[in-house]
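Subject: Netrin-4-like isoform X3

B.,
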Amino acid sequence: MGNLAQGRVLSTQSVCGSNSSEPYCFFKQTSAPRSRESCSSAKCSQCNSAIPILAHPPSAMSDSSFRYPDTWWQSAQGVKEETLQLDLETEFLFTHLILVFRSPRPAAMVLERSQDHGRTWGTLRYFASNCEEMFGLTEGSPAGESGAICTSKYSGAFPCAGGEVIYRALSPWHSVDPFGPAAQDQLMITNLRVRLLQSQPCPCQAKHPGAAALPTDHYAIYDFIVKGSCLCNGHADHCMPVKGHQPSQQKTSNMVHGKCVCRHNTAGGHCERCAPLYNDQPWQAANGITGTPHECQKCKCNGHAKSCHFSRGLWLSAGRRSGGVCDDCLHNTEGRHCQNCKKGFYRDPSRPKTAPDTCKACSCHPAGTVLSGGSTLCNPSSGECTCRPGVGGPRCDSCLMGYWGLREYGCRPCDCTGNCDPYTGDCISGSDVEVFYTATGHMGQSSNSSETALFRVEELFSALHHSEKCECVEVGLSSPKLFCVAEYDYVLVVKVMSARDKGSHAEVEVKVRKVFYQNPHMKIQRGGVILDPESWTSQGCTCPILNPGSEYVVAGHEDWKTGRLVVNTKSLVKPWKSSLGRKILHILRKDCSRW
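Prediction pasted inline below.
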């Protein structure tokens, strides 16, 4: 609590001697005289705002009345109306005003305030020697929406010097919570304005012959005391300067500053909200009658958030016990209280729940693990990964028995009666024997009668039967770079079932064992398909060579017009071996970046 005017600028419309030296006279009569003879005589002097000893600026009203009791502000001579205004840098609580006049108090004046930095004004009190005559108001009756009353108590001409005008914002006999909304609305100000509407002479002036011609027609005020405090809603004991505000005087040790130094876990220039991490209950002003502080309560964020917000819905559903929701959970946590690990992370049981490293990233293979929102899934408690079909291991990084070829969709079932190589799919069980024609034309054994095929000799368009005509030059696999540059549309493991003479060319029916790669728009599946080798009549054989009953790795192109799978001299055709399969898979992944 202090004088809000101290250290701040008081503005007026005029100042005595602002242009040049100006004569003035005054009566220093501090009480009503008992007779004409007891009236003091007028005293006269000069004022000049450019000469400090003769200056009477507005700042003299807000200096210390104890250290500087004989300093005052004085208006220009002959001014009929004058305005005194105090502009504050932020909202303050205003409790009462004390004006000490050096001239006779005005016959009429108005006290006004603004709560929006001067955009709008409201009247607090009317002062007049005759309320009916000056304002058309009945003394003591509220006027208009503001409810301001008019009083004649402080409008008498005596004393001619030292007369006081006092205004109290709150009635002293009413007990009211100063931090409650009603009192705050009544006390809060950003600007205070006093309009001096009509001056009046000292009565002693009429008692002295010739005194009427003296220059006494001015306003003069010793002290302009605006008692109040910073607006802190009961959550601060003291205040500090508002950022960017410069006091009008150097010595401002008693100045009332406007920025609250908040307590009770509150924040803001006026402690008008809870601190960022203390929004578990709604903000409340302190109770000025009972002394209850109404501290803001901390949200339960387990050390993983810097702020939270209040949810009235959650607060009501929890029986008005807790309504905080943590904001922007840190350390890979999520949830209302940052109590859960995010997807793709799991809780480390060896670390406290409040530790920054309590949530560890799931160590899962991206190809073998189920994805959710672009992240791999693992058990949030144990970290165990959620594997795709046919995939196993704690990290989902290997195929289960009976599966092979870990890809983005998991592992594929082996096309064998037993197990197969997990990388190439090559059967490693002795029971998976196929029927095929040997080079001498003898038929081997098969454990699967549905795959048995008998071929007529005229269907075997190969170098084994027409070696004198075959001039086929086959592509090798010596250079991974050349393999990638070829940009094959498909890479398959096939078993040749039959070859049919179509006159100008041959159609080779194959069974697809494995699909190592295919163009994204193609839909090759395991089972029977047709390959179209280059015309055998021009080469003397199917070219490249495809022996019925044998297995090959075939890499070729698609005829984009017909959709046929073309096999020609640019295609790669090699007898199938497990080692060859591993080599091709390595080239596709590392050199061609097809996966």
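The first strand starts at residue 2 and ends at 3.

T.
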